[in-house]
Write the structure tokens for this entry.
Amino acid sequence: MKIKSLDPRIERAQLDSDSQEGMNSPMDQFQTYEVFEQKKRGTHHIHVGSVHAPNAELASVFAKEQYTRRGQCVNLWVVPTAAIYATAYEDADIFETTPSKYHRDPESYKVMDRIQAFKQKQNA
Amino acid sequence: MEMTERHVMGLIEMLYKMADDQLIIGHRNSEWTGLGPILEEDIAFSSMAQDKIGQSLALYELLHELGEQDPDTVAFTRNAEQFHCCQLVEAPIGEFDFSIVRQYLFDQAEALRFEMLITSVYEPLAMVSRKFRGEIKYHVMHGKTWIEQLSKGNEESHDRMQQALNAVWPLALGMFEEGDYEKEIAEVHIFAGEKALQARWMETVVPFLSSCGLEIPAHSDAVLGGRKGKHSPELQPLLDEMCEVFRIDPSAEW
Amino acid sequence: MYGSAYIDPNTQFEGYLAPGEDPALLAEFEARIAAGDKIEPRDWMPALYRKQLIRMIEQHAHSEIIGALPEGTWITRAPGFRRKLALMAKVQDEVGHAQLLYNAAETLGKSREDMINDLLTGKSKYSNVFNYPAMTWADSAVIAWLIDAAAIVNQLANSKGSYGPYSRALDRICAEESFHLKYGHDNVVFLATGTPKQRQMVQEALTRWWEPIMHFFGPPDNVSQHTEVLMRWKVKMDTNDNMRQMFLNMYVPKIWDLGLSLPDPDLRKNEETGKWEYTEPNWETFKQVINGHGPCNAERLAVRRMAEEKGRWVRRAILKENTPYAIPLS
């Protein structure tokens, strides 16, 4: 049965509602690319999402409009997802004690008290 | 040289054809919204369509400053014979091969046209030309990436690109149809003229298309008439769509 | 934009641990969610959680791509530059949202192509509201305002859900939807405060859309064990009725404010309970439409099929064989 549509594009296409065309095969799946945007020179690139594309050139063309059509951006990276080696969340404990390693923390070096005490002793 | 009435008329004629081209191709390219071959491409086409319609608005605003009616009236109430777009921009999107060849050939001409206009003595136009530069650069990048990949894709896609090029080429040559004031706008350095633009365009697109393994159709006559209000039968139905809501109540503010 | 995932009340709930799943892992998983932490793609998760999320995110993605169709109808006809550019950007966003959501669902292990196939065969659903036609320009305005408003209620709730990729996608989506809502409201206000003809158009559109809007959040939830587990796992964030109440509370006053009326004589806020009272919409109609008998089901799927079919040669031409497919990272 021909579809009667309010949409001029669809009217022109003369679609048949009984057609069973359109099915994809799993072979139609593109690679994915991860997208990183830099909002301003001098800042880090930040991961914003991914696109499906057959190669980096098209991934970049796609990423530009999908991820930067609002707001500021000066640079865009696309990286094949398969090229990213990520740590496993179950290994998150390798980071666990890091925040308590005070010897790396500038805040843990407080010498003013000691200097004051030393000065008082000198002046005494 | 001093600007006379004929120079201004030439300027107005030129702005109309540029704005009408953009308005119509913008509407046509918007037809991909929701129907693209890949979701991501659907989004890209929509952005380019928005850019084109936005650019046409900027040009209609320049026309308004030159005494023409306001942009909404000019864009959405004229009939086909009052439009100055070339016939290249008029057909619906058709298949992706047609759309992408049209998009590239059109945008490559736009890129060169606005590059030439950056030095126009008509400063408001030089200003918008600088503003459009980045947008159009992306449009060209988009078109070239697709043409190259599809021409070198597989046999079917190569054939489709060649056939689309054969069909689009004479229409594309129609972009450079000369106006009545070519001499005037050139002599005061508003714009160097369609012939000069066409030469640059040929120098750019021919080597690129050849490098993609596509053959430039030989003995192809330009489809002319658009600049003089002679259009394909596809334009008026689109204009009817564009006016449909306004016509429900012309006194209303939408 | 999107309504609640339609959970078939006849679904058999077979316990929340599949055979062979480790209760200790489940305990850890539940503790993480209870603590307000997000679950990420490569974490252990119960099969039921994965299945429900795929179904929900996929339905949401389908709703976005199908949702682009009724409004897309009006792009070439949008009156004037201001409305036209806004509508184009809005419908583009819907397609963009579909892209983000398919990616989020993909992280759970179902490919975009499989999801689209399930949409085309009718195996997987989309929001019922898009099976209705946008008859006039005013319908497109009502959709942009009220359907998007309803979607925001739902999406804001879901963005607090437990699955990281879905939450991130929804954060981005909600930010964009707020532009849709503003645009839609502006458009409706112009019509409602405009000429008599414009007012008539918008009133008629509102009357047409009221039942689909009331259907939007889905039928009242039966508080099954199934729903309870999904809420504990922060897959389902609130009951359908609660979200409907939130929507009514925020938007009915705004509609009345414009002097527009709604086709339900019993609609009113009970000041004692603070709840809105209304005539239950016909849930039989809702089921009929879900099962393919709405005014536009056939067209929506036929259009999607056409898009897939017309795009196939393009995809095939640029597809490189033997490239490794990797599930999106996050």
Summary: Chain A has a mean pLDDT of 90. The beta strands of chain A are 31-38, 46-53, 75-80.
